[in-house]
Design brief:
- The chain has 28 helices and 20 strands.
- It is α+β, with helices and mostly antiparallel strands.
- It folds into four domains: about 190 residues, 2-Layer Sandwich (Nucleotidyltransferase, domain 5), CATH 3.30.420.10; about 170 residues, no CATH class; about 80 residues, no CATH class; about 70 residues.
- It is globular, with a radius of gyration of 28 Å.
């Protein structure tokens, strides 16, 4: 038995900014409407909003409405029945809301998420977008946004609207809820032709458990960081006002005008624009104002603000990761605090810096470490701490993408390096420049070649050229721009099997769209089914490209692959792809599946993961239980579906999260 569920809720907490857990923990959180559909029965509605309405204005009597009435006893019985599969679009929201409302756990094993099902097939993110992409006869009602704004959120003045304030709107809102259930059901049934493997449902279940348990925050550090930022920002603003005479030195318009009066004209004041402006500044005052602008423009404190908004009653922050958030590859995406793009920590004594902030010794902190904004940026990671009586075990895969790419392409010299020392940057430079690897190691006579090997490894694997090298920091690492074309050429010569792999993958994808499926090494299969190009990965999971078409590429005198996907600003549009890009998708997706299976094995061994970042896991382990050695052993185990893939994990233990 399957029951589709959709809720309309009210809370004074901003769901987008704070996340679902603080949203449901608000004292005024409540469920307004419950729409549910059991198998093929008509969708029913439970109107809790009207029952809780204290207004005197008459509402449309339920007897006069043609909406089938639901029964709370029936719904609750079905909801708590383990044999009933519950489905929703973004099921994490419904799970959290219902768990809070009924004060009952909502085991994720009993749920399925239609949003994830859509993402696995390359469809866009929202219910409305998916319905439009699939061309459903019944679409999500356009009035929904304004109705949600009216009934589900307080006004800016803090006023809540009730059903009696607008009975006609409320009736429309009821129909909107019913329509959402019907649209979700239609999408689920339409996509059921391509079911997700059980291992993927298990991975989503584990993801929900990880998000449910959350990670503890150091509240003392968090509050100290925000206090320090307030003091430091006020000091900078006072100095900037004194130097410029401006009311708001943070205003782009005001500061641009002030700079122009001093002969410094600019269209932008973003962080990339400031360094050249500093070089052209006519005097010390202008330079100082520009440096103040640099400091005021640093955004590290926004991470702390996001932590504060997401902090829950249990002292933890939850739902930091979105399963299948990176829809093309199936990788996880960061949410709320965005743990996927935290600044690295480079100061040597993180523990001392943390202690000084916790003790509010701000003057000594600045004297010892320098700019407070720099220190705050360094300490963001360390705000995540283990549970009481626990420590973190932090482990990540070493050079996972380079390993997977070499394995997929059969680049044997790279695999041999990973079977051995694993010094891929030195080995790559050795192959490129025909210099012994030992000479390129740190302290060796040709250690200057290592940066070239590193940047080439990072930039060239997916058909990247000079632009990719620059984006990966080639110029910042001291490599002359004139050397870049030669580095690309040398890397491609040294990695001829990877180069061949780009073209083999592109040819296989184009042939599949033309009606000729094919299979490459490691079970990589390319085939079309209805509106999709599927690429079966070695793990058995499939990547999906919706509505593939071949378009002429006059520049290269060939046909190029296109498909529908999320482009700029998440606009669903037709995108181009090519061999290197497809190989990037396949490689990153395969690396993701390595992490998926490792996390399942770690959990089975009793290790509690609290979050993960790219190819790294953060485990909350009781003192005296478990070990880094065992975690590394589990992560490095050979995978049944990837024979010969050399996996290795490195890590450390810590009393706070950091980058080793």
């Amino acid at each position: 038995m399957i029951m589709g569920v959709d809720l309309e809720t009210y809370s004074s907490v901003d769901l987008t900014k704070c996340g679902v857990r603080p949203y449901v923990e608000a004292p005024d959180f409540t469920i307004l409407l419950i729409g549910y559909k059991v198998n093929s029965q008509p969708t029913k509605l439970i109107d809790l909003g009207s029952k809780g309405d204290t207004g005197l204005s008459p509402l449309l009597p339920e007897a006069e409405s043609d909406i089938p009435l639901g029964d709370m006893k029936e719904f609750r019985r079905l909801l708590l029945d383990p044999a009933v599969i519950k489905t929703a679009y973004n099921a994490a929201f419904e799970r959290n809301c219902l768990a809070r409302y009924f004060n009952q756990p909502m085991p994720p094993e009993q749920w399925q998420c239609t949003m994830v099902q859509a993402a696995t097939l390359g469809l866009p993110g929202t219910l409305a977008q998916v319905g439009a992409a699939l061309g459903l006869e019944k679409q999500k009602m356009e009035e929904g946004k304004s109705l949600i704004q009216y009934f589900c959120k307080p006004t800016k003045a803090g006023v809540r609207h009730y059903p009696h304030d607008a009975p006609e709107k409320w009736e429309l809102f009821r129909r909107y809820n019913i329509r959402d259930v019907d649209v979700e059901t239609t999408i689920r049934e339409k996509l059921s032709h391509w079911p997700r493997p059980q291992v993927e449902h298990d991975a989503w279940t584990l993801d929900q458990k990880i998000n449910d348990r959350g990670v503890r925050l150091d509240k003392t550090l968090l509050e100290g960081a925000l206090e320090l930022d307030g003091i430091y920002t006020a000091r900078l603003m006072d100095e900037a006002r004194n130097l410029t005479g401006l009311d708001n030195p943070r205003s782009d318009a005001q500061l641009k005008k002030w700079l122009a009066e001093r002969g410094v004209v600019t269209d932008s004041l973003d962080k990339k624009s400031i360094p050249p402006l500093l070089e052209s500044a006519p005097d010390d005052i202008t330079r100082r104002v520009l440096r103040l602008r640099q400091e005021l423009g640093k955004t590290s404190v926004k991470k702390y603000e996001a932590m504060k908004r997401g902090l829950c009653r249990d002292g933890r922050v939850h739902n930091l990761l979105q399963f299948y958030g990176a829809g093309r590859t199936g990788r996880w995406a960061g949410r709320l605090v965005q743990v996927q793009n935290l600044p690295q920590n480079k100061i040597s004594n993180l523990a001392l810096a943390r202690e000084l902030i916790c003790n509010r010794e701000f003057d000594f902190l600045e004297l010892y470490f320098g700019s407070p904004s720099f220190v705050l940026s360094q300490l963001i990671r360390t705000a995540f701490i283990p549970s009481e009586g626990h420590r973190f075990i932090i482990a990540d895969y070493s050079a996972i993408e380079a390993r997977v790419l070499a394995w997929l392409a059969g680049e044997n010299w790279v695999l041999q390096e990973f079977y051995g020392e694993g010094l891929i940057y030195e080995a790559t430079a050795s192959m490129m420049f025909h210099v012994p690897k030992n000479d390129i190691k740190k302290g060796g006579p040709r250690a200057d070649l290592r940066p070239k090997g590193k940047v080439a490894t990072l930039a060239c694997g997916y058909q990247g050229s000079v632009g990719a090298l620059i984006n990966m920091g080639a110029l910042e690492s001291g490599i002359p721009e004139g050397d870049l074309p030669g580095i690309v050429k040398r890397w491609r010569t040294a990695n001829d099997r990877i180069v061949s792999f780009w073209y083999a993958v592109e040819d296989a994808a184009i042939s599949a769209v033309q009606g000729e499926p094919s299979t490459l090494e490691h079970g990589l299969r390319f085939e079309c089914d209805s509106d999709y190009l599927f690429i079966t990965l070695p793990s058995g999971r499939r990547l999906a490209y919706y509505k593939p078409e071949l378009k002429p590429e006059p520049k290269f005198n060939k046909l190029g692959l296109t498909y529908l996907g999320n482009g700029e600003n998440k606009h669903y549009t037709r995108l181009k792809s090519y061999g290197g890009k497809l190989v990037e998708n396949i490689t990153q997706a395969t690396a993701r599946d390595c992490l998926r299976d490792a996390m399942a094995a770690l959990e089975s061994a009793g290790y509690r993961i609290v979050f993960h970042v790219h190819d790294e896991v953060v485990i909350d382990a009781p003192e005296g239980s478990g070990s880094l050695k065992e975690v590394q052993e589990i992560m490095g185990r050979p995978l049944r579906w990837a024979p010969g893939l050399p996996l290795r994990a490195a890590g450390f233990e810590s009393t706070f999260y950091m980058k080793d």
